[in-house]
Design brief:
homodimer, seven-stranded mixed β-sheet, 26% helix, DNA-binding, 2 domains, alpha+beta, Nucleoside Triphosphate Pyrophosphohydrolase
DNA sequence: TTGATTTAAGGGCGTTAAGCCAATAAGTGG
DNA sequence: CCACTTATTGGCTTAACGCCCTTAAATCAA
């Protein structure tokens, strides 16, 4: 194999633009469930540009460590949260001359869902990485176009919540249908009919009862889990658990 | 603004991986309607690797000419077909260490739909760029992972055909509902009910009659066109006409 | 001219899914 | 045991979908 730099020198003969490559990075919109609200994982930037601004956890492909851009995304998330997300999906790629004040820049954005209790809050990171309620974001100025990216990720999540049950990845291993319904209501910002929602879950065939029941106030609810071996969601996604 | 190379030198201080960037390109799956079959635009590669193989029209971002990766996609399509497509949509980004035999490589793939009659077949290009029926592809060996990419683009198009009317971009300015239905049947590979299809078109509110009618065998059909000012499709796409 | 043929467009109806409201079930806390 | 809370299900209304058949409006062949 020819080394990357030699390769570019070679290509330069044919196509001058092949040499001057734009910067390529990966960014992640990592979402979890806070107290009654969606939260997004942000990191404080230590370098310019946007030094000391909060921004999405991401970074550059490591040609040695990473086999694919999905690996890059997962690696960066793991560095910040300590775990692999329950669901990750490619959102879109944004590349233009204006999003980075310095120069042309390209980023492939991934949306990841993760159960809050699965995150290990490493103390040393807590000042550099933090969860923010999405409602707080309007009062914050994030790095680059990250505010807009988060909005697009939330829109995609709303779409998913309307015609899929992907948001279950925000809950843990097991959950009740009421909990899942509340998550959907939170994402969609409106109440859903319990009967209709239960029908959706049953007809999907993606879930099964664990046999366990909740305890506490009110009638106990049945716990459900993702049916094992199910190719759970009809989307391009990477299941990591 | 600091130049790109200086920028990379600067970044290198903080993150060594920032310097060694993978190659980034844009590829296009340009689809049109042939005689009773979908056709995809391919170009014969003049350089290694995969020299003399057919592959997707694409290339590298030109930092001077292009304002965004969408511009890159449209520019490359225009170079090959002479026109801008009626519909273009970002499909996905594939980046890994194996798709290019030489080295790490990333490509953002766009799917474009274009009416065949709007393409200007430039004679000088005809040996280098050609339309191929999608059924022919199984007998061909394309460059890189382009065969797989085309399959994914066709799957996306099938998805679109089931819950949207995006495929109308494969027809010209005006078309009858029967023509549109036949396109959908071609994409989906199955017959559709005329009544159901007409209802879908009407309920969408995206189309209007032109007032003109067809002539020829059988009862004349009403011509329809995309309603102007309609934010026609609920997807991330770039309308160029 | 007339009828056969062809394609377009719409009417009618049974089946299925969605939406809505209320009843019932099964716990906890006094 | 009763009040309260939450879960789950029953049943009805309404809308959408699928299917078939009729009608409309042209061409084509005698």
């Amino acid at each position: 194999m020819i080394s990357a730099m030699n390769e570019r020198e070679f290509l330069k003969q044919y196509d001058k633009s092949a040499f001057e490559q734009p910067m390529f990075s990966v960014d992640n919109v990592v979402l979890t469930l806070g107290k009654g609200e969606l939260e997004v994982l942000l990191v404080k930037r230590g370098e310019h540009p946007f030094k000391d601004c909060w921004g999405l956890p991401g970074g550059f492909v490591d040609l040695e460590k990473d086999q694919s851009i999905e690996s890059t995304a997962l690696r960066k998330i793991k560095e910040k949260t300590g775990v692999e997300p329950d669901y990750i999906e490619q959102l879109e790629t944004i590349g233009n001359a204006t999003r980075d004040p310095r120069d042309w820049s390209i980023t492939t954005v991934f949306t990841a869902l993760i159960a809050k209790q699965r995150c290990t809050p490493t103390d040393e990171n807590v000042v550099l990485a933090n969860w923010f309620a999405v409602s707080e974001l309007s009062a914050m100025t994030l790095a680059f176009d990250h505010t807009k990216i988060i909005q697009r990720a939330l829109k995609r999540l709303r779409d998913r919540a309307t015609y899929s049950l992907v948001p279950c990845a925000l809950l843990g291993e097991k959950f009740t249908l009421s909990e899942l319904q509340k998550v959907h209501e939170l994402i969609l910002g409106k109440k859903l009919e319990a009967k209709v929602f239960r029908r959706r879950v049953e007809n999907s065939g993606q879930f099964e009862e664990t046999g366990e029941m909740t305890s506490g106030r009110g009638r106990p609810a049945a716990y459900y889990r993702l049916r094992s071996g199910t190719d759970a969601f009809n989307f391009e996604f990477i299941r990591t658990v």
